[in-house]
Amino acid sequence: MSQERYIGADLVRIFAALLVVAFHLGFWSWANERSTPGSILQRRAEFPEVAQLTHFGWVGVEVFFMLSGFVIAFTARSSTALSFLYRRFLRLFPGAVICATITLAVALAIGWREPADLLDRYLRSASLWPYGPWIDGVYWTLGVEIAFYTLVFMLLAIGQLRRLELIMIGVGTITSLIWIVFALYHGRPSNPFRGLISSRDAQLLLLHHGMFFSVGVVIWNAIAGRFTWWRIVAVTICSIGGCVVIYPTATRDLGLELWEQASIAVWLISVLLLIAAVRFDAALSRYLGPISRQIKTGSLATYPLYLLHTVVGAAMIRVLLDAGLPRYFALAFVLIAVLLLSVAVTKWLERKLRTFLSRLLQHRAPAGEPKRDMGAPG
């Protein structure tokens, strides 16, 4: 099965984005005062009544990584190294610049940090610099995405893209087994690379998140070909490895000792959702055909939504609360507002900047290359 777009994968991407937005604005904004939204709201409002529905939403980031593995595995198959680099640049850079600029303006307006600090963070974010601090903490994932893209670019450059699945199976299973064995040895999941290299370097080397990309790559190849026993084993090991990576984040970093099972369940359910969504994509396309354009727009809008919702969303909630609006009215209004803002950025600002950059670079894509990408990188 080969096609340019999977509406099922678009739906999973929208689901993952909504999970992350709900987590940052509905939970992290009051559960952790040191977080980005928490530092902006400063305990102006809490939403404990919905905590059980929002606390696990951060796992949507891991789902984004899985989707990136899936999407890149099939969109890169007819690309050259240069065309792949060009397309990835035009996918990431315009949205990063636009969203970082909007975030900078909002951060300056509310006096969130010193202007010099914000400018430094802005330049790091707009330039896709892999090391923070960024204008918004969510930009950390773009460096991880670029690390994965770099591997794909190198394979395209030497004409060995067909080995991507084998390499990612190796990366995913080896890192998963390291995490699993380390957890069994210590009796509790924890980071096996702590103290050896910095956490950020481990992320950029795909030691933390390689298994998530691997699951997506293998699922694409299984759908395009067939589910062999070794692919099933690879997905199983990498999915378990993902659980072991997720567990310490849910317990130590987020302090959710009683809820780590929910975070793990969301990850495993998302794997099954992606498999089912692309397996029955034809049926979904027939059923959802009348709104397929809206679903595509929603999927593309997940990228600016991801980059905008934390600082801009928290700032909007803060303004509304200071104006005396009820907390849940403010939360609901802002959720709708950031969704609409993200669609506007996608349909107008991103498109215009991407067109300008494309003409500036005077690039013409090779005939037969896929014409569209599927939504946001993780």
TrEMBL record:
One function term, GO molecular function aspect: acyltransferase activity, transferring groups other than amino-acyl groups
Keyword Iron recorded: no
Keywords, sorted A to Z: Acyltransferase, Membrane, Transferase, Transmembrane, Transmembrane helix
TM ranges: 12-31, 56-77, 89-112, 138-159, 166-185, 205-223, 230-250, 262-282, 303-321, 327-349
GO cellular component term of the entry, any: membrane
Gene Ontology biological process: polysaccharide biosynthetic process
Record flagged with keyword tRNA processing: no
Domain of life: Bacteria
One Pfam family linked to the record: Acyl_transf_3
Domain (Acyltransferase): residue spans on this chain: 8-345
UniProt-recorded name of the protein: Acyltransferase 3
Organism (species): Chelativorans sp. (strain BNC1)
